[in-house]
Write a structure and sequence with these properties.
With 604 residues, this protein is α+β, with helices and mostly antiparallel strands. The chain has 3 domains: 195 residues, Histidine kinase-like ATPase, C-terminal domain (Heat Shock Protein 90, 2-Layer Sandwich), CATH 3.30.565; 127 residues, Ribosomal Protein S5, domain 2, CATH 3.30.230; 107 residues, 2-Layer Sandwich (Ribosomal Protein S8, Chain: A, domain 1), CATH 3.30.1370.100. It contains 20 helices and 25 strands. Strands 1, 2, 3, 4, 5, 6, 7, 8 and 9 form a 9-stranded mixed beta sheet that branches. Strands 10-11-16-13-14 form a 5-stranded mixed beta sheet, sandwiched between helices. Strand 19 and strand 20 form a beta hairpin. The longest helix has 20 residues.
């Protein structure tokens, strides 16, 4: 018969270490968060062997006394949990990055841990060591103000854990990812990361405010992001959302450049995936992803940061409110961007026009972020040929048009004045300091699509009553989620209601759909609500149908336009939000500055 017994302190600590310290990156995260909570303005990290052999974190924070060091390596000891009015710790008011009080003793239980720390007013530093859970006495030591923590031979006391670590390169990259996320959340702190004498990251402290934050984001996410980012600043019911979001034409094939921070804490949450996808669904294909860095400031009592041992996830008391704030703020920023397209579009075009582009090996240049442009030497040659014939084709602009007599120096429209048409497909416009090349079909398709959206918003989505209502069987949880969002779905023309336990009955569908797999759509909606808490499938199908109609109703490639028609297209693009990209995130126009063109011809 089994006997219940208490585990030894060493076993308890090693179990806790398995929860808190999953890999070297987890240990780095815990130690750097402690440094940030200590008010450090400079944090230097050194690792060896991917962090398995050595992790050293030095900071200039407030430091710890000898007594503090003794308590810091005990389990469930912390200085970061405030006392409530009843004299007890308040678990719902956590304003720091860490508070669980398990990181240092857990690391000490599975590694060789040493801490040297000196408070600002102390004459000397103090040192303590923990090896495999055994704590040595506190001793005086030499050291600057702040704290230095050394972790050597991680998991030496639990060798079975070493088998689950990845290669040195993978562990090093995981450490770098953790450090970069923390650096993004705290731009006022200088941070460096060195691996095997190789400088992987060196970030100087940035100034307070949006400019400093964008500079830090650009240093980590890339200069292109900083040049193509839209500022986000919105408040709803005491929750503030700030940050930056990339233009739709600045997109990626995965969601790796999507970051969410809650009260300065980097978190991974499906909330941002669904919210961002919903906000950009109108501008990007399903397999393309925008770049965003969003910062949520919320009352600590409205968010639970204790749902994950490593504090990598949070739970909002009102997740719907936060999701709605993110979607609304992103859509507002995208609307305010108007017809603006990303600078990477012009950069990719200039690369394509350079003489050595066609001969360069595929691996020697970066693919444009929109990935549908000059993808082959043949297409490059075609465009170069068309570009060379600009003078001949420009002559096709009717001389009686008033645009023929416009003084270039007096041009004020952002997209310029039409000067010609290439191959009955591309409109060429002259601006004050360059040229604009417009894909007439893609641009007009977007304009028609925006008109359709505006009309649908004004009149609502027309519904069609099913002759025979369709019953779809689901599990009870899926049914409850769908019925709870029935009002939202009805606004999109999709009317359903509960039909006993574990089933829904669909009575009306959007009239624009025509023939529709109702059961398949219902199951897709249930999956969306389960994974992303967003009914995206229905919205995406509506947008797909509208996009198809817009495509067939727009000006086709191969149609010759008059000068007045071309200028009318340019003016409407300037007045229509989101006209800088088609419905799949590809650019509708390319702008080339005169200085760039002159550089192509060796004039500069």
């Amino acid at each position: 018969m089994p006997v219940i017994r208490r585990l030894s302190e060493g076993t308890i600590n090693r179990i806790a270490a398995g929860e808190v310290v999953e890999r070297p990156a987890s240990a780095v995260k815990e130690i750097v968060e402690n440094a940030l909570d200590a008010g450090a303005t400079q944090i230097d990290i050194i690792i060896a062997g991917g962090g398995r052999d050595l992790i050293r974190v030095s900071d200039d924070g407030i430091g710890m006394s000898g007594d503090d060091l003794m308590i810091a390596v005990e389990r469930h000891a912390t200085s970061k949990l405030p006392m409530g009015a009843d004299g007890r710790e308040d678990l719902h008011d956590v304003a720091t990055l860490g508070f669980r009080g398990e990181a240092l003793p857990s690391i000490g239980a599975v590694a060789r841990l040493s801490i040297t720390s000196r408070p600002r007013r102390a004459d000397s530093a103090m040192h303590i060591a923990v090896e495999g859970g055994k704590v040595s006495p506190v001793e005086p030591a030499a050291g600057p103000v702040g704290t230095r923590i050394d972790i050597r031979d991680l998991f030496y006391a639990t060798p079975a854990r070493l088998k689950f670590l990845k290669g040195e390169r993978s562990e090093t990259l995981a450490v770098a990812d953790v450090v970069k996320r923390l650096a993004m959340a705290h731009p006022q702190v200088g941070i460096s990361l060195t691996s095997e004498s190789r400088n992987m990251l060196r970030l100087m402290p940035e100034a307070e405010g949006d400019a400093g934050r964008l500079a830090r984001l650009g240093a980590i996410m890339g200069r292109d992001f900083a040049e193509n980012a839209l500022a986000i600043d919105a408040v709803r019911e005491g929750i503030r959302l700030t940050g930056f979001a990339g233009l739709p034409t600045y997109n990626r094939g995965n969601a790796q450049l999507q970051f969410l921070f809650v009260n300065g804490r980097p978190v991974r949450d499906k909330l941002i995936v669904g919210a961002v996808r919903g906000a950009y669904a109108d501008f990007l294909a399903r397999d393309r992803h925008p770049a965003v860095a969003l910062f949520v400031e919320i009352d600590p009592r409205e968010v639970d940061v204790n749902v994950h041992p490593a504090k990598a996830e949070v739970r909002f008391r009102d997740a719907g409110l936060v999701r709605g704030l993110i979607v609304g703020a992103l859509k507002h920023a995208l609307h305010a961007a108007g017809h603006r397209a990303s600078t990477t579009v012009a950069a990719a075009t200039l690369d394509a026009l350079r003489p050595d582009y066609a001969q360069a090996p595929a691996s020697s240049f970066a693919q444009p972020t929109w990935e549908r442009g000059f993808s082959s030497p043949a297409s490059v040659a075609t465009f170069q040929s068309a570009f060379a014939d600009l003078g001949a084709h420009a002559a096709r602009v009717e001389p009686q048009s008033t645009t023929e007599h416009v003084d270039p120096s007096s041009m004020t429209p952002p997209l310029g004045v039409a000067r010609g048409q290439l191959h009955e497909t591309y409109v060429i416009a002259q601006t004050t300091d360059g040229i604009v090349i417009v894909d007439q079909h893609a641009a007009h398709e977007r304009l028609v699509y925006e008109r359709m959206k505006k009309a649908m918003a004004a009149r609502g989505v027309a519904r069609q009553i099913l002759l025979i209502p369709e019953v779809v069987e689901l599990d009870e949880a899926e049914t409850e989620r769908l019925v709870a969002r029935a009002g939202e779905l009805a606004e999109l023309g999709f009317v359903l209601e509960a039909f006993g336990q574990g089933a829904v009955v669909v009575r009306e569908v959007p009239a624009i759909f025509g023939k529709l797999d109702v059961a398949g759509l219902v199951r897709d909606l249930a999956d969306d609500l389960s994974e992303l808490d967003e009914a995206l499938s229905l919205k995406e199908r509506l947008e797909q149908v509208c996009g198809t109609i817009a495509c067939h109703g727009s000006v086709r490639a191969g149609r010759r336009l008059t000068a007045d028609e071309m200028n009318a297209l340019l003016r409407e693009m300037e007045a229509t939000p989101h006209s800088g990209q088609c419905n799949h995130g590809r650019p509708t126009y390319v702008e080339l500055k005169l200085t760039d063109i002159e550089r192509l011809f060796g004039r500069k």
